[in-house]
């Protein structure tokens, strides 16, 4: 993974579109340089043999944290919409999803 | 209360003054508001000052105290890092994205403090979404180090550390994902604690890296730190990673001393890029601990240097998922001049997030993307397992580990902004505790060129008592925590 | 259909789970009836800093579904984040399950034209539903989308089949079976019209005798059994036609339009989906112990296929009658209660079962249709209903009368005896009064009696007609005939 030659400008654009961030060409170039540098530093992990190691996906050794199926209070519709940039009566309003 | 008196005030003695009615919470709160007004132009620690609600909180606290129903933190003025949700008070994460976001809910810790009758003075500045080590990534303002306003306070809890350091509040709550409480505490000469992962509920802490984030106190003294943790720790049914383990009475054991304590000093924390002056101060601190009866042993934790790489895979990966919700649809910044729905979302994220946030989102997206997951995210999780194991083994032999908090003292504003990797190296000594999920504290341990240096200690999971014991013993034996900025 | 090709179909069914609260928060999951954005909290609307907590009931319903379709239940299961951006997805990721679903390797038996076949079920996993998007056109020609968050976070199970189905008919049968199972174990209301049971279908074609899978097309947005069937039929023909003229099938998602009866390519700005799954750090794994599984297993009483077999065997009903009866739980229970009560009343078990089944399968559905009623609107109990069956079997009511009484019982909730009395509908089977009436009729119609004695069997019909006239149709025709013959013979 140390070989970051594949971190092309197009790869950066692909990542940006996956995560829905618009980027100017200048931003793409700057990002590519900075990320390449970071990835070079991250490459040290290759030095460690992890073949027989289990991954740690959770930071606590808890299991089966479950809640009872009880329904309680919800927010008032006013509070739901309070921070919405646009709304229409009781609904959040956005530009059309299908045009 | 006189402004200069605030500089020596701690939660412990404010509690005594309040309980003996020598001062009311309202008087105390008004003194702090005045102090904030006098110092804020230099420090810029607050994103929001909630003056009116603070005065209201104080009046209510006085009623509680009058009727003898007070708790440890009743009437105590504090600040919250602005990534902790406060119902009705805007919570920005120092991001343009949430500039006007007013949560209709409280974080668990906010609620706990409100239930105690504590007084919330306002919200502390941070690096946007807690991503950074200097608080220069705030979208709104640059917080200055109270010891030298041409220097950074550290980060990401730069607002909280600077604010406590400048005696603008009795304590603040920060969050620590890779050192964000301890590193600024070290740079601002105050006490910063990152508790065990799961000890304090994360509900209402705006997520950066879910498996690493933890809330903790920034205080003037170790005893204050214990008093605050005592009141924010504990099980929360709204956080599935919250530990359902009783909270010990930290104040009962804090002054037991460290005679016979086994303290390990991992040599790896004295190798990479450490400022020799800082190293000398830490070595001197170890002698202090030894003189107090601890047994100091140099050890080796060879995986230490890999923690940074693990962190810069796991944290951005989780962040990339946690930050997808900011799209200008339901709340937050919304780019209006867009051509269509997708253009709106993509431009909202382009202009709503700062450079560092976007850098980490893209890095995380990369590390998780198809074809790279095994080499990056999975690999990092496996090395994480090894690092955790290395610490577990160390704590079989040692009560605590001691090392520097940061390789250097506070650096100049703008000094590292152009080189992300140099900035990341600031957290090289603090990150391992987050990777391992263990508690860690930074306490004032010396001055170099009139800038504070922090001593860091770590203990095994849920062994905060040992940290408090060791840190308190050190504090009692030294005067460093009494050195205040000349503001 | 062209015989060169073999159709390969796999189905992914999403079914909302029947819980009180949402998957990860305490908001009510009764969004169907609720006002827009009234079942929403910071957790299900993905506000900053909130955390999920797993609903135990949802996990149990998934385990139950898994068991009902013969799955193995994983001893440890976990949640993963499925990352994608869409305005109906509040958190920007869906909490789903990637590599450790609750249930795996199940199967479902279908029968088509008398042939049995087993369809493999790859996995059953737990996830959360998304918000509802509503498209709105303004009079001025502009348009926008509206978001109702109520549905976001409602627990959802995804049931993924193996590509084992070879025709739209098999797919249809699989769906019917699956639908009936999740309803019968009360895992889901599985109401397709309301969207609580949704189906995506993958379909590809290959040359008969080959094993490699062809390029598949995914059909989304299908909201009735009939539409799934029609969409698959359409797609099957479309693909064969393309292959026959040597064209390639494009791997794509197509939507089904009920209006045009066509599948249409969904030309959304598409880039390769990369969901970047990773373990959900906010949710510790869940251990599913054998005890837990056993306890859930014990709550599964009888599955639809088993119930049909039992009805056929113990009530001597046809498969058709049995499956109609069990398709509705209320009716099936009502049926069984009635037949048992008939037995208590000393009636023949099998014949009362047959009578009862006819009334429920034929007459009840007619009445419900005519009066636009739901089963739950009707008010009668099995005690009254068994008395109706008794009246029929004892010939107190003939079949026309029985239907009238039944209808009135359902609408009015009164006992059948009361209704029959009020409407004057009781059959005269009392021999004494009939003897008297018949004796008078015979004496007034001696030519007909004479005809009968001379061997004209049709004369009896005339005499019965006279008896009916006299009794206003209430005489039991069977008994009346017997009396007429015996009186003539005696004279």
Q: Number of helical runs of chain B?
A: 17
Helicity range of the residues of chain B? 25-40%
**What's the number of extended β-strand segments of chain B?**
11
Give the assembly state of these chains: heterotrimer
Structural classification of chain B: alpha/beta
The end-to-end distance of chain B, rounded to whole angstroms, is: 16 Å
Mean pLDDT of chain B: 97
Walk me through the structure.
The complex is a heterotrimer of chains A (99), B (487) and C (491). Chain A has 99 residues and is mainly α. Helix content of chain A is 33%, strand content 8%. A two-stranded antiparallel sheet of chain A has the order 2-3. In chain A, strand 2 (87-88) and strand 3 form a beta hairpin. Chain B has an 11-stranded mixed beta sheet, with helices on both faces. Chain B has a domain at 3-259 and 406-482: Amidase signature (AS) enzymes, CATH 3.90.1300.10. In chain B, strand 10 and strand 11 form a beta hairpin. Helix content of chain B is 40%, strand content 13%. Chain B is built from 17 helices and 11 strands. Chain B has helices spanning 3-6, 11-19, 25-43, 51-66, 108-116, 158-165, 182-188, 222-232, 250-253, 276-291, 307-322, 341-352, 355-368, 374-397, 420-424, 431-436, 464-477; strands at residues 46-49, 77-81, 119-124, 171-176, 191-194, 214-219, 262-266, 295-299, 400-404, 440-448, 451-459. In chain B, helix 8 packs antiparallel against helix 17. The longest helix of chain C is centred in the last third of the chain and has 23 residues, at 349-371. Chain C has 491 residues and is α+β, with helices and mostly antiparallel strands. Chain C is 41% helix and 20% strand. The N and C termini of chain C lie far apart (74 Å). The radius of gyration of chain C is 31 Å and the shape is elongated. In chain C, the strands form 4 sheets. In chain C, strands 3-7-8-11-1-12-13-14-15 form a 9-stranded mixed beta sheet. The chains are: A mainly alpha (99), B alpha/beta (487), C alpha+beta (491). The A-C interface holds A 14, 17-20, 57-60, 62-75, 77, 80-81, 88-99 and C 19-22, 26-30, 35-42, 45, 53-59, 78, 85, 87, 133-136, 143-149, 271, 274, 276, 278-279, 281, 283-287.
């Amino acid at each position: 993974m140390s070989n970051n030659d594949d971190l092309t400008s197009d790869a950066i654009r692909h990542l940006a579109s996956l995560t829905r961030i618009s980027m100017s060409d200048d931003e793409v170039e700057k990002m590519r340089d900075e990320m390449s540098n970071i990835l070079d530093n991250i490459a040290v992990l290759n030095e460690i043999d992890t073949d027989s190691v289990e991954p740690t996906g959770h930071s606590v050794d808890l299991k089966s944290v479950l809640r009872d199926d009880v329904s309680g209070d919800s927010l008032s519709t006013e509070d739901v919409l309070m921070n919405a940039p646009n709304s229409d009566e009781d609904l959040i309003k956005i530009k059309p999803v299908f045009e | 209360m006189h402004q200069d008196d605030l500089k020596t005030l701690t939660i412990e003695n404010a509690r005594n003054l309040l309980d003996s009615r020598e001062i009311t919470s309202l008087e105390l709160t008004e003194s702090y508001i005045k102090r904030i007004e006098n110092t804020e132009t230099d420090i810029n620690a607050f994103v929001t000052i909630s003056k009116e609600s603070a005065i209201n909180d104080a009046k209510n606290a006085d009623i509680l105290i009058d009727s003898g129903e007070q708790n440890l933190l009743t009437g105590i003025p504090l600040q919250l890092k602005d990534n902790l949700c406060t119902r009705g008070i805007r919570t920005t994460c120092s991001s343009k994205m949430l500039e006007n976001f007013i949560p209709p809910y409280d974080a668990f810790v906010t609620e706990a403090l409100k239930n105690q009758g504590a007084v919330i003075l306002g919200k502390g500045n941070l690096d946007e979404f807690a991503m950074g080590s200097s608080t220069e990534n705030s979208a709104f303002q640059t917080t200055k180090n109270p010891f030298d306003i041409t220097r950074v306070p550290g980060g990401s809890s730069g607002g909280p550390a600077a604010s406590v350091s400048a005696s603008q509040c009795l304590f603040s709550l920060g969050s620590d994902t890779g050192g964000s409480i301890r590193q600024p505490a070290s740079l601002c000469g105050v006490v910063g604690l990152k508790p065990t992962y799961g000890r304090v509920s994360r509900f209402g802490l705006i997520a950066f890296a879910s498996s690493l984030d933890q809330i903790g106190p920034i205080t003037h003294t170790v005893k204050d730190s214990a008093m605050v943790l005592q009141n924010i720790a504990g099980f929360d049914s709204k956080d599935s990673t919250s530990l359902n383990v009783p909270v010990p009475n930290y104040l009962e054991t804090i002054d037991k001393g460290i005679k016979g304590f086994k303290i390990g000093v991992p040599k790896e924390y004295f190798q990479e890029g450490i400022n020799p002056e800082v190293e000398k101060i830490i070595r001197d601190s170890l002698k202090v601990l030894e003189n107090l009866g601890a047994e100091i042993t140099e050890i080796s934790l060879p995986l230490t240097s890999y923690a940074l790489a693990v962190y810069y895979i796991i944290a951005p990966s989780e962040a990339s998922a946690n930050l997808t919700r900011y799209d200008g649809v339901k709340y937050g910044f919304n780019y209006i001049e867009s051509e269509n729905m997708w253009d709106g979302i993509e431009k909202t994220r382009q202009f709503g997030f700062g450079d560092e946030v976007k850098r980490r989102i893209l890095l995380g997206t990369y590390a998780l993307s198809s074809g790279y997951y095994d080499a990056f995210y999975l690999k990092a999780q496996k090395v994480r397992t090894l690092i955790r194991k290395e610490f577990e083994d160390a704590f079989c032999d040692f009560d605590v580990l001691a090392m520097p908090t940061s390789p250097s003292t506070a650096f100049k504003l703008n000094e590292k902004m152009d080189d992300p990797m140099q900035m990341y190296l600031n957290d090289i000594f603090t990150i391992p505790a987050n990777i391992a999920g263990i508690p860690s504290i930074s306490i004032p341990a010396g001055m170099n060129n009139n800038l504070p240096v922090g001593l860091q200690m770590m203990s095994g999971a849920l062994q905060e008592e040992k940290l408090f014991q060791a840190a308190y013993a050190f504090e009692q034996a030294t005067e460093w925590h009494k050195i205040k900025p000349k503001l | 259909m062209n015989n060169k090709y073999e159709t390969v179909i796999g189905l992914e069914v999403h079914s909302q789970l029947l819980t009180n609260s949402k998957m990860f928060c305490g908001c009510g999951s009764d969004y169907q009836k609720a006002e827009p954005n009234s079942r929403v909290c910071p957790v299900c609307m993905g506000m900053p800093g909130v955390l999920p907590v797993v609903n135990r009931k949802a996990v149990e319903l998934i385990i139950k579904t898994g068991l009902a379709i013969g799955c193995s239940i994983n001893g440890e299961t976990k949640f993963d984040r499925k990352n994608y951006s869409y305005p109906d997805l509040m958190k920007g990721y869906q909490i789903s399950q990637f590599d450790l679903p609750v249930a795996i390797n199940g199967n479902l038996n279908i029968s088509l034209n008398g042939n049995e076949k087993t369809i493999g079920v790859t996995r059953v996993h737990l996830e959360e539903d998304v918000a509802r998007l509503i498209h709105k056109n303004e009079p001025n020609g502009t348009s926008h989308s509206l978001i109702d968050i109520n549905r976001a976070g409602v627990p959802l199970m995804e049931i993924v089949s193996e590509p084992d189905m070879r025709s739209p008919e098999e797919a249809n049968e699989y769906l019917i079976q699956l639908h009936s199972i999740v309803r019968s174990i009360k895992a889901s209301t599985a109401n397709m019209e309301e969207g609580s049971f949704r189906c995506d279908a993958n379909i590809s074609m290959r040359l008969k005798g080959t094993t490699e899978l062809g390029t598949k097309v995914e059909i989304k947005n299908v909201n009735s059994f009939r539409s799934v069937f029609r969409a698959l039929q359409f797609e099957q023909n479309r693909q064969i036609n393309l292959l026959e003229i040597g064209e390639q099938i494009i791997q794509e998602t197509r939507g089904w339009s009920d209006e045009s009866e066509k599948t249409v390519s969904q030309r959304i700005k598409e880039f390769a989906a990369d969901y970047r799954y990773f373990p959900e750090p906010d949710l510790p794994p869940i251990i599913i112990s054998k005890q837990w599984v056993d306890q859930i297993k014990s709550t599964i009483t009888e599955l639809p296929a088993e119930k049909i077999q039992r009805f056929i065997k113990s009530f001597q009903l046809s498969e058709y009658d049995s499956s109609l009866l069990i398709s509705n739980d209320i009716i099936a229970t009502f049926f069984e209660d009635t037949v048992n009560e008939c037995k208590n009343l000393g009636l023949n078990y099998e014949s009362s079962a047959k009578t009862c089944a006819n009334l429920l399968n034929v007459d009840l559905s007619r009445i419900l249709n005519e009066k636009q009623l739901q089963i739950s609107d009707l008010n009668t109990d099995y005690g009254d209903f068994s008395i109706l069956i008794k009246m029929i079997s004892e010939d107190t009511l003939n079949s026309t009368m029985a239907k009238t009484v039944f209808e009135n019982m359902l609408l009015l909730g009164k006992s059948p005896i009361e209704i029959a009395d009020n409407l004057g509908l009781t059959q005269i089977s009392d021999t004494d009064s009939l003897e008297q009436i018949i004796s008078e009729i015979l004496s007034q119609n001696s030519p007909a009696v004479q005809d009968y004695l001379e061997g004209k069997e049709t004369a009896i019909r005339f005499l019965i007609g006279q008896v009916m006239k006299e009794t206003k149709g209430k005489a039991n025709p069977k008994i009346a005939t017997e009396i007429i013959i015996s009186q003539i013979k005696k004279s």
